[in-house]
Amino acid sequence: MTSWHARSVPLANSTRISGAVNRVMAKEPSLAQRAYEQIKGSILSLELRPGLFLNEAKLCDMTGLGRMPVHQAIHRLQTEGLLEIIPRKGLLVRTDSLQDILMLLEARLAIEPNVVALAAERVSPEQIAVLQRLLKQSGLLTNQSQRQSFSMIDRAFHGVVAEAAGNKILVDALRPLHERSDLIWHLRIMPADGLKITQQEHEAVLQAIVDHDPDAAWRSMRAHLNSLQKRIVEASGPLR
Asked: Which long-range contacts link 65-74 to residues 24+ away (Cβ below 8 Å)?
């Protein structure tokens, strides 16, 4: 009987198959995905401010897309708690109150310390190098006017830590929590030394990961999120 290796795919066919796979892998996101990403980005950047009333027609004009993909995006964003559908009135951009933000951080506290503990056990040398580069960049950003640049590094840092845990389900669970946490950076409620404090806390998290010490990693991430909670409460007063 002829073995599989002896019946290898001819080069021409193999090339065509490879090309087809590459085209599928590289295809553009669906219209619904594009609508979702555009609208969500506008909400998280506060271009669409909390408390704003909208309708599908306005979102179609804003995205340049048709009603069906926008409609699908709206329901996805409703599920994520970023939009609220008000019968006979339209769409409401959700207002994140102080309590909402604290509940968001509470959710992260329930998951993220355990994720970083796994990361301390499973992180690769390549991931450590990426985390070190990120903190080297954020260490140069100490002024509140640099918050936006710092926030992008913050998001990347937490994302790489999650990936280092080696569990895709946990990565998927944390991603929407990290995305919604972007709203905190736009509230401008942090103290003047907030970036320096966050930098120091990130460095403690990374040191525990580099040391492959899951207990220290768990404690340092919990301390970081508790610190963030405390700073928000002290600096904000009631958020509306």
From this structure: 65/31, 65/34, 65/35, 65/38, 66/31, 68/31, 68/32, 69/30, 69/31, 69/32, 69/34, 69/35, 70/35, 70/39, 72/32, 72/35, 72/36, 73/32, 73/35, 73/36, 73/39, 73/40, 74/39
